[in-house]
Design a protein that fits this description.
alpha/beta, single chain, five-stranded mixed beta sheet, 14 helices, about 35% helix, Cytidine Deaminase, domain 2, Helix Hairpins, about 400 residues
């Protein structure tokens, strides 16, 4: 296939729309089911690059949950604890394959943002992963292949209209990429920078101890940022992004946004949240929404008389600000990556509240010394990578 006509572009009024290859070359993708749209393909192709690089860097199966050209979650296939299985709503699925574990992590980190995602998988999609995907609200999936049973499961989703894309894993794009904005052609070399441990050698803080697991997580953070709309920062723990802040004009706003998401991820593991008395038959998305409100500042929107009865069998107690802070103090060993330098130490102050212990950023700010001093106050280890990862 050399060209694929799309229903419309970003919006229904933007027609015609298509994807195609220059010089009549074959597209590296096949649509096995459904009818993916313009934004679907943007998410699919960016997501595929992300998981392909995660797999290369870590040697583990990888998955990403993409929404509007930025990842809502990204992870590698490490086993899940019983608590993570519960907060990701996969505790009833039995033993998970490594690829399914990767998607459970990618989808589960920020379930509010992942609602209606486009999925990217680094490996051939197995039946275990397909069964997990089938019951989530999602637009489609891209992978290098599909087991026969997995493909049949996915084809039955959305009354047969679920988008399933297969990509040629051996495809290598041209070294120069182009796009048009307002009729003007932009051209640049592709960002082929390989993110590996060699970029993490320049430790600039008093604490120079970065264990192997943290080095892995730093690479996950930086690879995720490589495909996240800038400005962006990414918090990672135990092989998965737990908070991604994308597309903010101020870096500290990225750090706060992603930090709040990381906090929510950890608050969902608190006993008060795990034991919420949901009424039978509550849909998964409604549970996610209720939990998000319960652990947030607007909890009375959920707990007010006449409101909680629609969700719970009994009224839960308020999860107080003091109780939440006490629980969050148990979050440690978190990694933070930034796609450009931190201009002020306030980013580090905010990161410390979410358990950050290890930081990777390019360096090069006139206030680098202030940022290093801030890390030293919290006994954080920070590396200067010397590379910027802007993505637009």
């Amino acid at each position: 296939m050399k060209e694929l006509e799309l229903k419309y572009g970003c919006n229904p009024n933007q027609k015609p729309a298509r994807i195609f290859m220059n010089e009549g070359k074959e597209l590296p993708v096949k649509v096995l089911n459904g009818r993916p749209g313009y934004i679907n393909f943007l998410d699919a192709l960016n997501g595929w690059q992300l998981v392909k690089e995660l797999k290369k860097a870590t040697g583990l199966p990888a998955a990403a949950s993409f929404k509007h050209v930025s990842p809502a979650g990204a992870a590698v296939g490490l086993p899940l604890s019983d608590v993570l299985k519960k907060i990701y709503w996969v505790d009833d699925l039995g033993e998970l394959s490594p690829l399914a574990s990767a998607y459970a992590r990618a989808r589960g980190a920020d379930r509010m943002s992942s609602f209606g995602d486009f999925i990217a998988l680094s490996d051939v999609c197995d039946a275990c992963t397909a069964r997990m995907i089938k019951r989530e609200v999602s637009d489609g999936v891209i992978a290098p292949g599909y087991e026969e049973e997995a493909l049949e499961i996915l084809k039955s989703k959305k009354k047969g209209g679920y988008n399933v894309i297969e990509i040629d894993p051996s495809y290598v794009p041209e070294p120069v990429e182009r796009k048009q904005v307002y009729g003007v052609v932009f051209e640049q070399g592709r960002n082929e920078l390989e993110i590996n441990r060699e970029l993490l050698q320049n430790v600039v803080t008093a604490n120079r101890d970065i264990p192997e697991e943290a080095l892995r997580d730093l690479m996950i953070a930086l690879i995720t940022l490589k495909y996240t709309q800038s400005n962006s920062v990414c918090y990672v723990k135990d092989g998965q992004a737990i908070g991604i802040g994308a597309g903010q004009q101020s870096r500290v706003h990225c750090t706060r946004l992603a930090g709040n998401k990381a906090d929510n991820w950890y608050l969902r593991q608190a006993p008060q949240v795990l034991s919420l008395p949901f009424k039978p038959g509550i849909k998964r998305a409604d549970r996610d929404n209720a939990i998000d409100v319960y652990i947030g500042d607007d909890y009375m929107d959920l707990l007010a008389d006449g409101r909680w009865e629609a969700v719970f069998t009994e009224k839960p107690p308020v999860f107080t600000k003091e109780e939440k802070r006490a629980w969050l103090d148990g979050l440690t060993g978190v990694v933070l990556g930034s796609d450009a330098f931190f201009p002020f130490g306030d980013n580090i102050d905010r990161a410390a509240k979410s358990g950050v212990k290890y930081v990777a950023e390019p360096g090069g700010s006139v206030r680098d010394d202030d940022v290093i001093d801030a890390c030293n106050r919290y006994d954080m280890a920070m590396v200067f990578t010397g590379i910027r990862l802007f993505h637009h």
